[in-house]
Design brief:
alpha+beta, binds magnesium ion, binds adenosine-5'-diphosphate, 651 residues
């Protein structure tokens, strides 16, 4: 997209309104050359300052009032040749020429201000010494671009060139085969002003075109004077003609399409000069007067073109050859770019101000760009109009689309922002909740571990007490002194469980794991224990409640009383007690989250989770104590006043 306000952009916009649409102003670009070595040697000051890219400030020496001038672009001394080429928008002119328009680029300014340098670069330093590519001027750069562009068009285009100079009011053909001779300037209705018998050379390559340029430059009149060692003494016009071979290949509806044909003309004006300042004498003075006269005629035409009533007034284009040949570019159907060149030196200030005023007025001159009307140009014109209509429609649709896009993006943007806010809030809540649950879970896990540990300790205590109870009961039955040696000491029973034996008390008379009475002082394998215990026949057909519990001491073959008959209450008592202790599965509760650990002893902390177990443990201890006391004070087999209710009643 082109920068708004750039000559290229302005030109494009004005031209897009149609070949016969509104008037298009002449584009003016200002170039300030650097201070020359001679000027610096003489201690001259620069009076020009660029302000931004489009304004030039002039500060007169001695503190006079500052003056500002505004142009399409202002290029200061630091800008390169390439910068100038780009800023001038010459490629755009080339595109228009390819589409059939007549385009003109001309440099204007005081002698020695850099016009020729800007268009064609510095003069060659010697015979056959080429100009470095970085210093190539607008013309060489445009040639390279154009040849490349035409090569990529994919349709046959004929390119031709002519090169002439106006020297002392005579037109001379710089490409003539013989020595240049004056050529007449004619006029007709279709072509306007034209140079009769001007040699137009077809070329097919950049090299060929460059060669034509060099021929013309070498034949052009130049002289040395005080302000310029290679001062052009003529106005030079190099014109490129772009045409199509057949009418069928003409429509240039877009830049990629084959061009209609057109003209691109480069005009290097001779500089205006003060004869007193340049020190011109004799022939040089004649040349200077001629140059100045033609430039005066040009200025006069420009002044009249600025007149709003100009359509009714006569524009004296015929006053000079220069104005005749520039008539189309200035007031006709052409597209025109002026590059005004100035010197920054304080010594050149009057001429610089004159050039700046001239250029300022020129940019108010307008033309009505129009592709040449020929028999074959009618179709392209129709297509041109169609293309412009389509471009307009395209712009309108693009605008509508942009509006819709911006509305849609505004709406969806708000929705997305809302959703993001809410999602973010939810996410934060979830994270907090997660963290809380994770803490709770770890606390529950700790409580569970604690409770399991306590349960295990309690169970061990219960079993130890149980063994002591059974041992005491047995001793009570057998009487003191008849206690058989502990089976654990005599011959350890083979383990009936995978678990290691927990109980190692030598007074234990039951299998510590499966709790089967050790009738033969050895623990039977588990598979033999269970049938033995649960087998109804082995238990004499008694109901399970009447059977002695598995931990009942064996019925001694020599004893007077069968345990079934004489110690049933004892067994009932211990069975109930054991069932209470063993059958109850302790499931530790999970407190929500103890703020402080309960102040209980480590051994009883599980009591909070298993209240009955602790109570029962206490009852069991009492029971054992009672049992032992009874054993000491009563005969072994007397059942007396003992009752389970008494023993087991906890509190
Ligand atoms: P004009 O054509 O306006 O009379 P020239 O183009 O011949 O002036 O330039 C005069 C001198 O100044 C030349 O020696 C040229 O090389 C030098 N010159 C002009 N413009 C520049 C520039 N932008 N950078 C460096 N040298 C320049
Ligand atoms: Mg010059």
């Amino acid at each position: 997209m082109e920068e708004r306000g750039s000559p290229d952009g302005d030109l494009a916009r004005s031209l897009e309104q149609g070949p016969e649409g509104p008037e298009t102003p002449i584009q003016v670009v200002l170039r300030v050359r650097p201070m020359s070595a001679a000027e610096l040697r003489r201690g001259q000051q620069s009076v020009l300052h660029c302000s931004g890219t489009r304004t030039l400030q002039v500060s007169p020496p001695g503190g006079g009032p500052e003056v500002a001038f505004r142009f399409g672009a202002v290029l200061d001394a630091a800008r390169t040749q390439e910068d100038v080429f780009r800023a001038c928008g010459v490629r755009r002119l080339g595109e228009l020429a390819l589409r059939g328009f007549s385009c003109t680029v001309f440099t204007f300014g005081q002698t020695g201000s850099g016009k020729t340098y800007t268009l064609t670069g510095p003069p060659p330093q010697g015979e056959g010494v080429p100009v470095p590519p970085s210093l190539a001027g607008i013309m060489q750069r445009t040639f390279a671009w154009l040849l490349d562009r035409v090569q990529h068009l994919g349709a046959p285009v004929t390119l031709r060139a002519s090169y002439l100079e106006i020297y002392n009011e005579q037109v001379r053909d710089l490409l003539s085969l013989g020595s240049p001779r004056p050529l007449p300037v004619r006029w007709n209705k279709t072509q306007g002003f034209y140079v009769e018998q001007l040699r137009v050379v077809e070329f097919r390559s950049l090299e060929a075109l460059m060669e034509l340029l060099q021929i013309g430059l070498s034949r052009r009149r130049s002289s040395a004077h005080t302000l310029n060692q290679a001062s052009s003494r003529s106005h030079a016009l190099l014109t490129l003609y772009i045409s199509h071979q057949t009418a069928q290949q003409m429509p240039p509806v877009d830049p990629g399409a084959p061009p209609v044909g057109g003209k691109l003309c480069f005009v290097d004006l001779a500089g205006s000069e003060k004869v007193a300042a340049t020190g011109s004498r004799g022939e040089l003075m004649l040349e200077a007067n001629s140059i100045n006269r033609s430039l005066l005629a040009l200025g006069h035409c420009i002044s009249l073109l600025l007149d709003p009533q100009r359509k009714q007034s006569h524009i004296p284009f015929r006053d000079s050859k220069l104005t005749k040949l520039l008539a189309d570019s200035l007031g006709g159907r052409g597209v025109t770019l002026m590059v005004a060149c100035v010197s920054p030196s304080a010594q050149c200030l009057p001429e610089t101000l004159s050039t700046l005023r001239y250029a300022s007025r020129a940019q108010r001159v307008t033309t009505r760009p129009q592709a040449p009307k020929s028999a074959v140009a009618k179709q392209p014109q129709r297509l041109e109009t169609e293309m412009l209509q389509l471009q307009e429609e395209n712009r309108r649709l693009q605008f509508q689309l942009d509006q819709m896009d911006s509305k849609a993006s505004g709406l969806s943007g708000a929705r997305v922002a809302w959703a993001q806010r809410n999602l973010y809030g939810m996410l934060q809540e979830f994270m907090l909740e997660n963290e809380r649950l994770r803490k709770e879970k770890s606390q529950l896990q700790n409580s569970q571990d604690l409770a399991r540990n306590e349960q295990r300790i309690l169970a061990q205590q219960v079993h130890a007490l149980e063994r002591r109870l059974l041992s005491a009961s047995y001793r009570h039955q057998q009487g003191p002194g008849l206690t058989p040696p502990c089976p654990c000491l005599m011959a350890p029973a083979p383990p009936c469980h995978a678990l290691p034996p927990v109980y190692s008390c030598p007074c234990c008379y039951i299998c510590p794991l499966c709790r089967v009475p050790l009738a033969h002082w050895a623990c039977l394998p588990r598979e033999r224990h269970l049938p033995q215990v649960l087998d109804p026949e082995a238990s004499g057909g008694r109901p399970p409640s009447a059977r002695p519990p598995p931990w009942a001491p064996p019925c001694s073959p020599g004893s007077a009383k069968c345990p079934r008959e004489r110690s049933h209450s004892d067994w009932t008592q211990t069975r109930v007690l054991a069932e209470m202790l063993m059958e109850e599965e302790v499931v530790p509760s999970a407190p929500p989250m103890p703020v402080r650990p309960p102040k209980t002893s480590p051994g009883l902390r599980g009591g909070a989770g298993v209240p009955n177990l602790a109570q029962r443990l206490e009852a069991l201890r009492d029971q054992i104590g009672n049992s032992l006391r009874r054993g000491r004070s009563q005969p072994p087999c007397s059942e007396g006043a003992r009752s389970p209710g008494q023993v087991l009643s906890p509190r």
